[in-house]
Amino acid sequence: MSQDALRHTVFPLSGLTKDYVKKIAAEAGFQHVLKKESMGFCFIGKRKFEDFILEYLEPKPVNFVSIEDGKIMGEHKD
């Protein structure tokens, strides 16, 4: 974003819905920044998801159990 555009920016936008802000941006000619939103874990960067999540949660092993006879078939480590 250019300094000129930033000069004309009003914060916070908390009283406006995301859809309304996108509509305003489109009408102002900012279509190039209106892209599909990511619902993934892009914020973790180039780390493995397992390494990231283990920073916040303790591993909790669980068993894989056969629905036919209740026999434990294996264990999932977290």
From TrEMBL:
The family database entries (InterPro entries) matched by this protein are listed as: Rossmann-like_a/b/a_fold (IPR014729)
Give an example GO biological process.
tRNA wobble position uridine thiolation
Q: Name one GO cellular component term.
A: mitochondrion
Q: Name one Pfam family in it.
A: tRNA_Me_trans
The entry's protein name is: tRNA 5-methylaminomethyl-2-thiouridylate methyltransferase
Provide the species name. Answer: Hucho hucho
